[in-house]
Design goal:
Helix content is 68%, strand content 8%. The radius of gyration is 18 Å and the shape is elongated. The chain is mainly alpha-helical and 155 residues long. It has a 3-stranded antiparallel beta sheet with strand order 1-2-3.
């Protein structure tokens, strides 16, 4: 949900547990962001993240769990983006992503953007070559193997 900040310049987005400052957005842009966040809610992405975080507590020493966590977050974003652009212009959506991402780092140009998840999301939307469901199944399978190996090592 959005509310006007005291300074009257920026809006804020509150989704679940996260709060983020956003540049001045039109009501249509705000609606696009809310639709994207609602996709995360509908797909129960937070449950995946909770599961991975619990696994990280148990297997904090295993380097693969951190990779799995990072990739799962990426897959969630790719999946939500894929659903978000079904009936929209991809270039406009990518422009909105760029607008929000560049406002978050505090300056209009920087090296952060070149290595950011946002740029990968934009590339993914333009390519649309991957089937997210298959990637998600593979990732959960890898996580299962990691958990099984950890359990076997402690027995």
């Amino acid at each position: 949900f959005f509310f006007q900040a005291e300074d009257g310049i920026r809006d804020h987005c509150v989704t679940g547990v996260q709060t983020c400052a956003l540049p001045i957005l039109t009501s249509a842009e705000k609606e696009v962001i809310l639709q994207h966040e609602n996709i995360h809610v509908q797909k129960l992405h937070s449950l995946d993240i909770v599961f991975v975080n619990v696994t990280k507590i148990i297997a904090w020493f295993h380097p693969a769990i951190y990779f799995i966590h990072r990739e799962l977050v990426r897959l969630h974003e790719f999946e939500a983006d894929e659903q978000s652009v079904k009936d929209k212009d991809v270039n406009e959506y990518c422009g909105l992503l760029s607008k929000v991402a560049l406002s978050e780092i505090g300056y209009p140009l920087g090296s952060h953007f070149a290595k950011s998840l946002t740029l990968k999301r934009i590339d993914m939307m333009h390519a649309m070559k991957y089937n997210i469901k298959n990637w998600k199944i593979a990732l959960v399978g890898i996580l299962g193997i990691v958990v099984a190996e950890i359990g076997r090592a402690h027995v």
